[in-house]
Amino acid sequence: MSFSFDIYDFTSFTKWIDVSLTSYCTPFWAMIWEMLIIGVAILIFYAVVGLFLVYAERKVCAFIQNRVGPNRVGPYGFIQTVADLVKLLFKELVTIKKADKFLFNLAPFIVIIVNFMVIAAIPFAKGLHAVNFNIGIFYMMAVSSMGVIGILLAGWSSNNKFSLIGAMRSGAQIVSYELSVGLSMITMVILAGTMQLTNTYDPVTNQVLVHGIVDLQKDGWFIFTGHLPAIIAFVIFLIAGTAETNRGPFDFAEAESELTAGFHTEYSGIKFALFYLSEFMNMFIVASIAATIFWGGWMPFHLGHIFGDWVSGFNNVMDYIPPFVWYIGKTFVIIWIIMLFKWTFPRLRIDQLLTLEWKYLLPINLINIILMALVVLMGWHF
Amino acid sequence: MTEEISSVVEVDDQEYIINFGPQHPSTHGVLRFVVNLRGEVVKNLQPHIGYIHRGIEKMCEKLTYQQIIHLTDRMDYLSAHMNNEAVCLCVEKALDIEVPERVKYVRTILDELNRIASHQLWWCSFGMDMGGQTCYFYGLRDREKILDIFEETCGGRLLLSYNTPGGLMWDIHPNFQQRIKDFIKYFRKKLPEYDKILTGNVILQERTKGIGHLSLEDAISYGVTGPTARASGFSCDVRKNYPYSAYDKVDFKEILYTEGDTFHRYLARMEEMRESMKILEQLVDNIPAGDFTAKMKPVVKLPEGEYFQRVETSRGELGVYIISKGDKFPYRIKFRSPNFCNLATMNLMASGFKIADLIAISGSMDLVIPDIDR
Amino acid sequence: MKSIIEYISGIYRGLRSLLIGMSVTGKYFFSPRAIVTQQYPENRHGHGKRSKKQLVMFDRFKGEVVMPHDANNQHKCTGCGICEINCPNGTIEIISVSKVGEDGKKKRAIEKHIYRLGMCSFCALCVKTCPSKALEFSQEFEHAVFDRTKLVKVLNKPGSSLMKGVE
Ligand code: SF4
Ligand code: SF4
Questions:
Q1: Which residue of C has its CA nearest to A76?
Q2: What are B161-196's pLDDT values in tens digits?
Q3: Which long-range contacts (CB under 8 A, 24 or more apart) does C102-110 make?
Q4: Do A345 and B40 touch (CB under 8 A)?
């Protein structure tokens, strides 16, 4: 098979890698190589996106606050975060005398590993994803909630009361908000009728075996086709997702003005940087999940055929924008909204956080699921 | 450390002790709270002070009355001008000098500008204590306008040293009035933004309403003053009750609430900014012509006796008590600083609430630590 | 029923207040004109990409105490020592000598007017009380030095003399 690279469809590209690798070595080694390639690719992606997000956040908050933000290193301060990372790499790793050293060192890695596991399932463009489970959404939900273990370990092992309070808060927070995130995703699963993220094709006949959530949004993103319940689910997902990423206004685990730095008070140097990066990657993950299940992931903006025949021309124009760009664009719009949350609202108190979840989000969510089920049953969606 | 504290504070086995400060982002300086916590709930709280004690009162005993002024700047640095004025008024009272009308007007204007600047800084740091960091920059952005007025006329931005017994150091700058009018116009537009971003916010209201209640009785018996006391319904505004400078000539409302919780302490300060702007509007066009200082001897010697003068700073009532033995130095000078008394109620207000509330309450008190320690 | 209405209106009011707050921050995000940052080292000169407006300090700004000299290297300080007395924290030290003037009379003249910038609290008493108005504030604010001894300055320039007509 000859080399083919198509920015609209990565399927042939990934297939080309696969075929050429198997032609050189045994399937076992081909598999190992593929894993390595994907691992390295995700690692690079992680670092690049993480650093860019740190930069983006600093710029966004600067503009919101009538400031300029980083503007000294590189054009428009673009390399500032790289410089910061280098600085953090050179910093001393302070070890706490009475800390549980093993857990203390382990904690940042747990947080990072969890991030990687989720990223693996995200479809970035057509044919560009590491794995495509038939329970994709379920997998994401399950894995992303494990990040809290890293935070709990960090808080516990630091042997610092501020850290401990932060970690315990974060535990309570994630346990409750996981529920809302899950339920709002389930609402969309009801609409989609599948938990798989992208289509699987029969290798021979090239027919669709299982429909994926992204491909199902071909004739309109779920937030439009699912109208009211989908919008409610989206809002809930945004709130709960922000809470799950430990970002303001839900940054209890850090709570700078209360707990100095919360669970990572005692971390320094690169270990701190890992926590810091993972916070941003968590945000990226939440945003990309939201983009995928509500805004169609890499699917271009298509109008349904109920608007008449002219839409196919419009849809064709939209198709000219490569899917990867769609995906990144949507994700960053959502990231911007999440950043706006952080830079506008004061922090909640821990009991208000629980009130918000158990008194507001959860009941609304449950009603919303019933509503969505009704909509789907009666065929009221588009 | 723990042993030392637990010998002082009773701790049962469910509680643990945590040190807030002296280095902590929300104590706004070197104040230390030793807090007994049960889970997240504050059981007991002891403020420890003295980390920034500089012995200002003792230093004053070797300084002439003109020289004292610049030290008072450094007590409550956010109401530097009111501190200056307190000493000046006390000395003028002792010498029985009538300062020119112009001086009175300018002093009052600067007082109110300083009050707004101080409340702006309080607003932004309160916002930051609550976790809304953007407030900080909006507040500072607007405060900069006032600092420009100060800088143009007084030469300093924070520490003004513009007063001197008998009057002012020099006359106001020609741009002074215009700049104030510009500022009022500008700030009238920006203040509603403060409300939009913080006052009206449901999170802030939920976090502050009913939190940290201070009853009227406690406010009076602890000697709490300023907006903190007025939020509890204690009418203690020195500007109203014992007018000094030009306060008897202006019409303004004393902001009084009866609820006494964190939210109303917040509101009291927000409303005070509006009232201050009203006062400024009444005065700024009517500054009478005249000298900027009364005739003073180069060496000021107070007649033997004891003198007391109080002024309303942005945090409450500042009293200056001078004992003179007829020298050019005071025999003893004592400042009754508002923050010291306000701080004493912290335990009363915060115990029973959560850590986050403790931060909100101490934020709403607007403590300036160098004023407590002096 | 009433509680349900309260519940829903509570949600409505809450969401509304949050959106109002976001409208303020969102508005500022999209209005780069509102940026108030002054980019420091560039704005000293006031040209270039980063800063169009030049930083001008107010002429009353109390940067540091200086003693102005005229073109003939003459200043107005008579060495009377009043500023030294008036300074609250011993910032100023006057070292004066007796000189025989042109008319043959002995006169106090200044040898060194030492000003310790590191101790000055910018109270302006020296400037105000100087009988011959020999001192002034300059608008210089970049005081950082690597060596503390550099903060001790001699205000009268070497070889300077008293201006004519100043007593
Ligand atoms: S500077 Fe002025 S006050 Fe000081 S010694 Fe010279 S003349 Fe006297
Ligand atoms: S400004 Fe004040 S502290 Fe500084 S030298 Fe002059 S008198 Fe002394």
A1: C50
A2: 888 888 888 888 888 888 888 889 998 888 888 888
A3: C108/C78, C108/C79, C108/C80, C109/C78, C109/C79, C109/C161, C109/C162, C110/C77, C110/C78, C110/C79, C110/C156, C110/C162
A4: no
Radius of gyration of chain C (CA): 28
Domain with residue B275: its CATH number is 1.10.645.10
C114 lines ligand 2 (CB under 6 A): no
Q: d(Cα A299, Cα A295) in Å, to the nearest integer?
A: 8
Please indicate whether, in this complex, the C-beta atoms of A347 and B24 are within 8 angstroms of each other: no
Its domain, for residue B261, covers 2-373
Ligand 1 centroid–CA B166 distance in Å is 23
Q: Convert the pLDDT of each residue in B196-237 to its tens digit.
A: 888 888 888 888 888 888 888 888 888 888 888 888 888 888
Q: Is residue C83 in contact with ligand 1, taking CB distance under 6 Å? A: yes
Query: Are the beta carbons of A68 and C18 separated by less than 8 Å?
Result: no
User: Which residue of chain B has the CA closest to C121?
Assistant: B70
Q: C28 and A65: CB-CB below 8 Å?
A: yes
Exposed, middle or buried by CB within 10 Å (0-12, 13-18, 19+), for A337? middle
Domain residue ranges of chain A, discontinuous segments joined by +:
95-378
* CA-C121 nearest atom, ligand 2: 3
Is B264:B231 a contact under the CB 8 Å cutoff? yes
C66 within ligand 2 shell (Cβ under 6 A) = no
Strand partners, B44: B36
Q: Please name which of C106, C86, C87, C84 lies closest in space to residue C95, comparing C-alpha atoms.
A: C84
Backbone φ and ψ for B278, nearest 5 degrees, come out as: -60, -45
In 3D space, the residue among A40, A38, A44 whose CA is nearest the CA of residue A17 turns out to be A38
Tokens of B324: 């003179």
Model-level ipTM above the cut of 0.85: no
- Domain C65-162's class? alpha beta
Q: What tokens were used for B78?
A: 């956010």
Largest Cα span, chain C: 106
Q: Which amino acid is at A23?
A: S
Beta-carbon pairs below 8 A across chains A and C:
37
Find, among B142, B362, B193, the residue nearest to B265 by Cα. B362
C137 lines ligand 2 (CB under 6 A): no
Percent of chain B with pLDDT strictly greater than 70? 97
Q: Please, are residues A268 and A92 in contact by the beta-carbon 8 Å criterion?
A: yes
Chain C contacts to B (CB-CB under 8 A): 13-14, 17-18, 20-21, 23-25, 36, 58, 60-62, 86, 88, 121-125, 128-129, 137
Q: What percent of chain C has pLDDT over 70?
A: 91
Q: Residues A334, A290: contact at Cβ < 8 Å?
A: yes
Grouping H, G, I as helix, E, B as strand and the rest as coil, residue B308 is strand
Beta strands C161-162 and A208-210: pairing type?
unpaired
